[in-house]
């Protein structure tokens, strides 16, 4: 009997020890299994279309005269638009880069080539329209109202907007009750940019927001040299990006373009460029841009840009900005240095990255 009781006691103790072998030491809380962070689900919105439209002009560039010095001006209107499956505007961002390069009496550049170049939207209240506006609204405020009016409309409906002539500089001012007290600017170029965006649009999946980003420079402008061998030229480089993002901020579509606008002058300060001709962007120039003949990989600018855009899709802005790059020469400080791009993108990409980052900041 004692032997049976002893065996039972030993068995009980053994079971207790086995059951307690996974417990935490005395005085310590048991270790909890780490919680798994659930992956963010993408809000599925189906197919839509992303477009980038551009309208350019150098018509307001002026010659040197008896009382005035020469001044080049490039007006670049840009529109990033997201359309639904029926072609109705879901999101629209319009901006205008009104960039000027002034020359002095000796046809030397008088504008600071290192200063930031800002669009009308970036200038905000500093653009100065409010003080001369009959409705006391700045350009960006009026544009926000015009963009809001476009939401839910097709391009044809936007183009059929009733307008009126106010003066020679305002030939197409909205003339409907919803806008007459809110928009007094002339809108023909903005409508044309939206139409261009639709015509150039591409299909994207699960886009929730879209934004327009820009990166501007006049650094390559030059004055007249001492021997008159090199003539004055204003160069305005306008990089722009229309980018669509999903609900997690991942890029689902991107279109990038560059309006590299040059206004040429003679030694006397007279414009020699055709002011009536709208300068084309690099995408619009296509094969006529002429990069292929000097490219070590024999690819045009627009062809390289398509590869870069495709690489960006599926990435966040931080990942785009984190692209590994290399310095090739003074003019190519940020050339992609990753296996996916080295054989197909030899252009420097810093301005394109900057424009995409701004598009994210401006997305709506």
Structure summarized in a few sentences:
The chain is α+β, with helices and mostly antiparallel strands. It contains nine helices and eleven strands. It has a four-stranded antiparallel beta sheet. Strands 7-8-9 form a three-stranded antiparallel beta sheet.
Proportion of beta-strand residues: 15-25%
Strand order of the largest sheet: 3-2-1-6
Spatial gap, N to C terminus: 85 Å
Number of beta strands: 11
Q: Roughly what is the average pLDDT, rounded to an integer? A: 91
- The rough form would be described as globular
* Count of discrete alpha- or pi-helical segments spanning 4 or more residues: 9
What percent of residues adopt helix (DSSP H or I)?
10-25%
Sheet with the most strands, sense and barrel status: 4 strands, antiparallel
Which stretches are poorly predicted, pLDDT < 50 over at least 5 residues? 1-30
Task: Report Rg.
Answer: 30 Å
Structural class from helices and strands?
A: alpha+beta
Series of H and E elements:
HEEEHHHEEHEEEEHHHEEH
